[in-house]
Each structure stands twice: as C-alpha cells, then as structure tokens.
Amino acid sequence: MPIRLQVLGGLHAFRDDVPLAWVPAQHISSALLVYLALEPAVTRAQLARVLAENVVDTVRQPLLVMDGSLRVVRANPSFYAMFATAPDLVEGRLIYDVAADPWRMPTLRALLERVLSQGESFDGFEAECDLPAGGRTRLLLGARPVATRSAEPAELILLAIDDGSASVRPAPSAGTR
Fold first, then answer.
1. What is the pTM of this model?
2. 15 and 76 assigned to the same domain
3. Full residue range of the structural domain in which residue 17 is found
C-alpha cells in the first residue's frame, strides 16, 4: 500500500491512515520534498532513510556515519565546517585516513569496534585535535550502533562530536576572585 503524505505545519506520512512519521516544517528540506514528489510509491524503508539523512544533515553537532569497516558513509555539514573538509575527501574513506588525530587513537578504535560487535554505545570519550580554524581543541565523542535490520549486529555507527574546549575553564590563579 502506498504511503500518503500530507503537509500541514510539517510533513505527515500515513499508510492505511496509520501515522508513520512526522517532521516539523522547519526540518523539511527541499531535497526531501522533491524526492517524495518524484517518487509517489515511497516505501516505509525509503521514507525512513530519507528522514534519517535529513536529520543527520539538519543537526548542528558534527556527525559521522560509518559502516562496519569504519569507512565514512556520510558526514553532515557541521562536520565539514569543523574540520574544513569536503565530502569527496571524507566519504568512502576509512576514518583513520580522514585525519591523523584523534581518529588513530587505539582506545577510540577499540570503542568503535565494540559498538559494532557488541552493540555498546559510548559518550564523553575525550580526544585532542588540531582544528584548521581553531588550533588545538578538546573533542568529546559519543557513538551509537545503528542496526539496519532487527536482531542483527550493528551495520552502521553514528559518531557525534562536541567541541569540549568550551567546557574547560582554567583554574583561578592566586589572588583573583
């Protein structure tokens, strides 16, 4: 049965009058609407993929999506801005080839492999990095497994990156308040 779409204050998707998804108007990109207009018989899986891609692109926090071999499948505009790079230099490459640090840290590699093999998540992993526009900074990394089929091991990893340098404040020196 085809999916019925309705745009009213956001994008509503229905199958047999059962709500499948809703995206607020401010998060609907023209690419999503063009895709849906060109493909009227969109399946639920296709809609979910398009919505997920749009969410990744909309989030202000730098994000990477990696496959089971730790190759970058997708990065969002915030990632490209933070690291002053472009999709053709990132997508399809091993995370370790994207930049030397912090991606080549053995501890990070072990954490990412556990995300894939055991479905574990992690948050707050600290790594230092030289950013093109900001010098040396501290990054806080977190990752989640993304299984594309139920009851399967994770096939993708979603890696979120925060600039943790803003949370580091120097200790007050003696004689200051």
1. 0.66
2. no
3. 1-58
